[in-house]
Recover the amino acids of this structure.
């Protein structure tokens, strides 16, 4: 089969880690007889530099015409002081919206060979941690009405709005339930229903929808502040977590840190079709860009998720995951996950080691 993949390398370490993933995908293509074609397009800071905007029309067109999209990372100090509409982040938010990617799945998994990288006590993580955050990605306060102004009463002011419709809550609940059906049959829905109206609708809708369409699923509610605490107190209690755009943004960083190796975590963003956008959870790390020390594994695992979730290539996905596992077990480490007695390699070497083991 032939697959057309748009690669949005982005900024900072983006191009290096995407190169690593492409190397591994090519090894998979060779072994399993697939043709992966890669088309590179601009997004983020590099797009601002070359085209004056973070998301050129041409990039959107290419993504919408592709089979799927692989993204490195966007942003960097260089663009930090630009007006909001021409900042790199705007490119990322724009492509999510343009592709209708309302479902962002961020699995935070503790790799057994890296268990001692977790900042938590060993007893808390020894039985494994796998928190799958299902984050609503195209609604809520990220895309709600906002404004700023000035009046004599309050002086300068600004506001953003958190707004969710039943339909938006239902479709993300369905994604979480589908995932949970293949796992613990339990979802934890996170909100702030003790304060926010939008959260009260969230809670009511999640329960009604799950009960009607997935009667086997147990839904537990958890307030967001308590969730933040529970993730560090007892991370093993979580399996599938479903939540709003902003809560998912915050909790996924926390869950990722619990695994101790943000350089290892991938995420998928999907809408109603099979075309998705796959990216590492970490950012563009401008401080280490161009030094070939960035860990390419998160992006390689994002490519694996693409094979499984967009192309239905489960064997191929498993081949990448076990190649990563093997390389870790053999003791190869990039700087971010380096341990005593391990063998330190550069980012490109890590990718090559994984590709060789496909
Ligand atoms: C993320 C990032 C983005 C977000 C930023 C860069 C706009 O933090 O993907 O989690 O807030 O969604
Ligand atoms: Mn974030």
């Amino acid at each position: 089969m032939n697959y057309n993949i748009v690669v949005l390398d982005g900024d900072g370490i983006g191009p290096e880690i995407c190169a690593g993933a492409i190397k591994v995908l090519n090894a998979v293509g060779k072994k399993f007889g697939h043709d992966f074609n890669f088309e590179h397009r601009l997004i983020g800071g590099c797009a601002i530099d070359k085209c004056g905007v973070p998301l050129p029309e041409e990039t959107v067109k290419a993504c919408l015409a592709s089979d799927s999209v692989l993204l490195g990372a966007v942003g960097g100090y260089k663009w930090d002081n630009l007006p909001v509409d021409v900042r790199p982040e705007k490119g990322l938010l724009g492509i999510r919206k343009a592709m209708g990617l309302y479902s962002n799945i961020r699995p935070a998994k503790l790799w057994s060979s890296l268990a001692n990288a977790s900042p938590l006590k060993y007893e808390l993580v020894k039985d494994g941690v796998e928190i799958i955050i299902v984050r609503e990605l195209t609604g809520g306060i990220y895309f709600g009405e906002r404004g700023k102004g000035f009046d004599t009463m309050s002086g300068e002011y600004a506001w953003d709005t958190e707004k969710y419709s039943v339909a938006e809550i239902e479709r993300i609940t369905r994604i979480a339930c589908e995932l949970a059906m293949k796992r613990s049959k339990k979802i934890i829905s996170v909100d702030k229903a003790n304060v926010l109206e939008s959260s009260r609708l969230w809670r009511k809708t999640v329960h009604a929808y799950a009960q009607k369409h997935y009667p086997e699923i147990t839904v537990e509610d958890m307030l967001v502040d308590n969730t933040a605490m529970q993730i560090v107190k007892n991370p093993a209690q979580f399996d599938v977590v479903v939540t709003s755009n902003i809560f998912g943004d915050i909790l996924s960083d926390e869950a990722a840190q619990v695994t101790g190796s943000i350089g290892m975590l991938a995420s998928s963003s999907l809408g109603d079709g099979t075309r998705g956008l796959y990216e590492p959870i970490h950012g563009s790390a401008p401080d280490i860009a161009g030094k070939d020390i960035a860990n390419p594994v998160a992006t390689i695992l994002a490519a694996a998720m693409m094979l499984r979730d967009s192309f239905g290539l489960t064997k191929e996905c498993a081949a990448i995951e076990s190649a990563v596992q093997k390389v870790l077990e053999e003791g190869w480490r990039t700087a971010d996950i380096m341990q005593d007695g391990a063998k330190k390699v550069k980012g490109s070497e890590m990718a090559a080691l994984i590709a060789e083991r496909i």
Remarks:
- The pocket of 3-isopropylmalic acid (ligand 1) is lined by residues 89, 92-93, 249 (CB under 6 Å).
- The chain has a mean pLDDT of 97.
